[in-house]
Amino acid sequence: MEFSELIRTGRAQAQLLRGPEAPPLRGTLCVTGHHLLLSPGPQSTPDLWLLLLRSVDSIEKRVAGDSGTIILRCKDLRVLQLEIEGVEATLDIARSIEALSSLESVITSFPFFYRPKGLRLGDAWHFLPPERYYKRVARETDAWRLSEVNEDFSLCPSYPRAVIVPRAVDDDALARSARFRQGGRFPVLSYHHAPSGTVLLRSSQPLTGPQKRRCAEDEELLRAVLAGARPGARGFILDTRSAQAAKQARMTGGGTEAKAAYPHWKRLHRPLERGRPLQESFVRLVEACGDPEQSMDRWLSRLEGCRWLAHVKEALSTACLVAQAMEREGACILVHGAEGTDSTLLVTSLAQLILDPMSRTMAGFQELIEREWIQAGHPFQLRCAHSAFSHARPKHEAPTFLLFLDCVWQLGRQFPLSLEFGEGLLLALFEHAYASPFGTFLCNSEKERCLCEVRTRTHSLWSGLNQPKEQRKLRNPLYVLNPLAIWPSVEPQSLRLWQGLFLRWTHPPEPAEVAWEKVWQIVTGREETEGSQPTASA
Amino acid sequence: MEHIRTTKVEQVKLLDRFSTSNKSLTGTLYLTATHLLFIDSHQKETWILHHHIASVEKLALTTSGCPLVIQCKNFRIVHFIVPRERDCHDIYNSLLQLSKQAKYEDLYAFSYNPKQNDSERLQGWQLIDLAEEYKRMGVPNSHWQLSDANREYKICETYPRELYVPQIASKPIIVGSSKFRSKGRFPVLSYYHQDKEAAICRCSQPLSGFSARCLEDEHLLQAISKANPVNRYMYVMDTRPKLNAMANRAAGKGYENEDNYSNIRFQFVGIENIHVMRSSLQKLLEVSGTKGLAVNDFYSGLESSGWLRHIKAVMDAAIFLAKAIMVENASVLVHCSDGWDRTSQVCSLGSLLLDSYYRTIKGFMVLIEKDWISFGHKFSERCGHLDGDPKEVSPVFTQFLECVWHLMEQFPQAFEFNEEFLLQIHEHIHSCQFGNFLGNCQREREELKLKEKTYSLWPFLLEDRKKYLNPLYSFKSQRFTVLEPNTVSFNFKFWRNMYHQFDRTLHPRQSVFNIIMNMNEQNKQLQKDIQDLESKIKQRKNKQTDGVLTKELLHSVCPESPTLKTSLCFKEQTLLPVNDALRTIEGSSPADNRYSEYAEEFSKPEPAVVSLEYGVARMTC
C-alpha cells in the first residue's frame, strides 16, 4: 500500500491555533505519510511545526464561504484548530488525516521509518527484563528458576519467552497449569521481596467453569510457592473482581480458585474498575476539564460524576493492601482478575513501587514498565488505540496504563523526594503509549513484537528518553534514595486531580513551571558550591 | 483555677480520628489553667489551649469508658476515652468553663508572660506603624489628607482614630455622610495606588431605604472621585448579593442609587453573609471529618457545602477591584452591610493583588493590622473569644487566609512567606495568647489597655522568620508586581493543610519546601565557608603553618546545622519535621493509613472473604 493513495491533497495555506497561550502559526500545510506539517517560512520561529498523524484522536471539519476549519483532538489531550484556505483543500486534508491516522497496520507505522540522529537501531533493546530480573532474584533466593517453556509462545501467546517459576515445578506441570488458566497465563513470579522472603505472583483466572474443574499441577504450583518462601508461609489470592463477578465468570468457563483445592491460600476480592467503564470515566473527566467556563458546583459535581479519582483510590489502596500483606504479614500474594493483563498488572506494578526502592529509580522504573507492562502482555495497541476524544464506540480501549501513571504521580506528590523521575517522565510515557515514533509500546504482546521484528526495525523509547538532553525534563532534582517502603495516604483529601496531565493544554500552569525551574537552580547551585568546596580546601 | 477539680487522669485513651477500628493511644491527661495536655505512652505531647476549644461533647458511656470529644477552632478534633465517668464529668465541666470566658481579663493574653520587659513589649507593639504605612503609599498628598474628625471616636466608634479622606472633604461633609451610613462608617481611604493615583475606599451601606438621600454623602463620593486626577468616574462595589441588599432597603438601609450620585458605576458582587459562611464551613468539616470517606462523597460534600464557591466569589471580587484600578485607572469604594467583614476581605485581597509589599512577611502583617484590625473587623465576636452569641461567629478571616493560600498555589514565587505562616496566624486569631486580635475595634482595645497588659504577636513571628520563609520567593521578578490570578473552577482546591492540619496521616510524607529551605541554608552556609576558608588560606599562606591549617579546616567544614528554635507557646510544628525525623515519617507504618484496616483481618483465622465483607460492601455501594 502506498501512502500517496491516501493523501488527497499535498498542500494548502493554513493558520494553526494552539490554544489560548500559544500564538497562532500561519504557513503552508502539508500532509505526508505519517505527519502533518506546517511550514511558516524560514524566517519565523519555529520554522517547522510537526504533528504525528497517529496522535490524532478525532477530527472535526467545518466549511464556511471559501475557507474551512479542522479541529484536531489529539491523544495527548491537546486540541488544535486549523483554518484552511479553500473548501476543497479543507475537505481533502481532513479526509487524508482521517485515513492516515487510523491505519491499523503495525509495520507501516512511523516507528518503522523513524531514524533519529544520534541513536543506533538496537540500542536499549538489550533490556531483557525477565532474564535481568531473574539474575536479581537468583542472588536473593534459589527457590525460583527461569523457564523457557514459552520459548515459541505456544503455551501462552501473551507471555514473554522466559518466565520465572518455582524451581520445584517442571515445564510439563507448567504446561498443564497453563491449560487451566485463561490465555495460558499460569502463575509466574512478579516480584520477590527479599526482606520478608515473600513473593508476588500474577496469572489469569483459572478455568474452573460451572463444573468446578480442578488442576492438580496448578495446585501443586501454588503449593510449591509457599514451600519455597518459608516454613509455615501463607498466601493470599487477590482477585481484582468482586466475589459475585468471579462467581459469574464460571458460567463462561472462568472462575476463581476453590478454597478446598488451595489450602493455605485465602481469597480476597477487591473489585477494580476496568474496560469500558474505566474508558468512560476517562472520557468524562477530559470533557469536564475542557470547559473552563463552568461554575464551581458544576465542576465539582462533574469531577465526582466521572469517578476517576475513586478509581485512583481503589487502585492505590489495593496495591497498598498487597504490599502490606507481603511486608507486614509475611504472606505470598497471587493477583489475578479475568485475563490478568490489566488491573492485575496495575496492582503488581504499584505494589512494587511501594515496596522496592530500586523500582523508584529512573532505570528501575523503566525496567518495571518493560517487565510488568510491556513484556507482561498488556495489550497496548488495543487499549490505547483511542484516547478520550474518539467518537467511535470503545471496543477494547481502556486507560489502565494512564491510571497506573496517575497513581505513580500521586505517590510522587506524597513522597516528592523518593522517586528519581519527575512528572515529565510520566507525561512522556502517557504520550508515547498512545502515539509514538518509538517502537516500545507497539503491538499487544511479545509474540506480536517478534513477528513484526520491532526490536530490530524500530528504536526503543528508552534510548530516546535516556539521552542526556532529555534528563532535565524527566528527572526529579530532589531525589534521594529512600530505602524504605512508601505508604501513601489514600484518603480522598490526600488525592488530587493530576492537573499537569488533564489540564495541561487548557490551562498551562506557567508560574508552577517557573518555580520548578527555580528548584532546579537551587539544587544544581548546591551541587556546584559543594563541588567547589574541596578545591577551596585543597 | 476554681473551675479545675481534677488535674490529672491516667489511663486515658486517645482514639484515632479516622480509624474505622478503634485504634487508640493510651496516656495521661493533665488539666492546667491554660491548657489541656495529653502525654501518650511514647511521651508524645498534645497541647490544647483552652481558648482553642470550640466545643466539648460527652458521649454515652461505653464499656471501655466515657468518651469525650473536643473540637477545636484550629480544626483539631480529639476523641478521648476516660475510664471513669466521674473524671470525665469533671474534665468536661472544667473545659466548658475554661473554654468560654465571660471577661476579656480572663483570657490567656492577660496572664501570658514571655519574659520581656516593658520597653521590649512596647517596641513589639510599635513594630507595625500604620501612619508609616500610609506614608509608604504616598498619603497625605495633594489629594488626600489625614482627618482628625474621629480623633476621639466621636463620629464612628468602630473606626480607628486616624482616617484618610479626600483633601476637599470638609468636616461637615464627613459628619453628614457618617450619619447616612450604617454604624457611622463613612467612606475613607483603605489603599492608595501611587502610580495610578487611584484609591480603594471603604464604608458601610447607606441608610437610603427606598428613597432617602444625603447630599453630604453624595459630596463625599464626588470628592473621592475628584481625588483621582486621571479618571472621573468611580466604582461603588456592593459586595453583597443583590437580593440581600434589596432586602436591607426595607429596614431603611440599602445601597446607592446611581441617579443620585454623579460619576459612579454601581456593581453587586454577590458574596454571601456571615451566617451562610458559618454553615458552609460546618458542612465542609462534617464531610471532611467523616470516617471512611469515599472519593465521591468527598466531592459531592465539597460541592454541597458551597465553600469553594464562596472562596471563588471573594477572589473574583478582589480581582474585579484590582482590574478597575489597573485597567481603568478608576477609584473604587467597597462596602457590604456594616463594612467590616466582606469589605475587609475584598479591600485587603485587592491590595494584596496590587501591591507586592503586602506579599512580604512584614507587609502581610501591616495589611492585617490595617484592613482587619484597625478598621474594626470584629475578631472577638467572629472568633468567639468570649462566651457570646454563637450567631456572630463566622470564618470570615479564615476565608481571607484561604484566598491568600490559593494565590500562593497559583503563584509559588510571589510570596515571601509560606503556608506555615498563614496557619500560624490562623492559630493565633483564636489563641487569645497575644493582644492583637482581642476586642472588636480599636476603641475597645484601648479601653482594655492591651498595649500595656498584653504582648503583640508580630515580633514573635518575626523572631521565627526563618520558619515562615518561602524558599522559591523571587522579589525581583517584575512579572509579579500585580497578580492576575485565574479563577477557573479547576484552580480551587480543598485546603487540606488547614482543615486537616493535625491529621498527619493525610499529609504528604515528605515536604519539598523543607528540603529546599535546607538546601538554600546549606548553599549559603557553604558559600560562607568557602569565603572563610579562602581568607584563612590567604592568612595562613603568609604564616606558612600547615599543621594548624588542616585542623582549622576540618573544624569549620562541618558547621552545625542551623536549628530552629521552637517555643512551647507556639503551635507544635504540625507540618513536616525537618530532615532527620523525615525518615521515620516516610517509613511510617501502613497502619497509619486506612487500607491497613482491611488487612488487620489477615491475622484472623476465619475465611478472609467473610471478614472482609465490611470493606467490600462499603466499596461497592
TrEMBL record, chain A:
Any single biological process term in GO: phosphatidylinositol dephosphorylation
Domain of life: Eukaryota
GO CC field: cytoplasm
Domain Myotubularin phosphatase: 124-502
Alphabetical list of Pfam families matching this protein: Myotub-related, PH-GRAM_MTMR6-like
GO MF terms held by the record: protein phosphatase binding
Similarity annotation: Belongs to the protein-tyrosine phosphatase family. Non-receptor class myotubularin subfamily.
Record-linked PANTHER family: MYOTUBULARIN PHOSPHATASE DOMAIN-CONTAINING PROTEIN, MYOTUBULARIN-RELATED
Protein name per its UniProtKB record: Myotubularin phosphatase domain-containing protein
Species per Swiss-Prot/TrEMBL record: Prolemur simus (Greater bamboo lemur)
UniProtKB/TrEMBL annotation, chain B:
Active site location: C336 (phosphocysteine intermediate)
Alphabetical list of InterPro entries matching this protein: MTMR6_PH-GRAM (IPR035998), Myotubularin (IPR030564), Myotubularin-like_Pase_dom (IPR010569), PH-GRAM_MTMR6-9 (IPR048994), PH-like_dom_sf (IPR011993), Prot-tyrosine_phosphatase-like (IPR029021), Tyr_Pase_AS (IPR016130), Tyr_Pase_cat (IPR003595)
Domain Myotubularin phosphatase: 124-499
Keywords for this protein: Coiled coil, Hydrolase, Lipid metabolism
The keyword Hydrolase is annotated on this UniProt entry: yes
Xref: SMART domains: PTPc_motif
Entry GO terms, CC: cytoplasm; nuclear envelope
Residues that hold substrate according to the record: N273, I274, C336, S337, D338, G339, W340, D341, R342
UniProt keyword Hydrolase present: yes
Coiled coil: 516-543
GO molecular function terms noted in the UniProt entry: phosphatidylinositol-3,5-bisphosphate phosphatase activity; phosphatidylinositol-3-phosphate phosphatase activity
Listed CDD domains: PH-GRAM_MTMR6, PTP-MTMR6
GO biological process, one term: phosphatidylinositol dephosphorylation
Pfam families assigned to the protein according to its UniProt record, in alphabetical order: Myotub-related, PH-GRAM_MTMR6-like
Family the UniProt entry places it in: Belongs to the protein-tyrosine phosphatase family. Non-receptor class myotubularin subfamily.
Protein name (Swiss-Prot/TrEMBL): Myotubularin related protein 6
Species of provenance: Prolemur simus (Greater bamboo lemur)
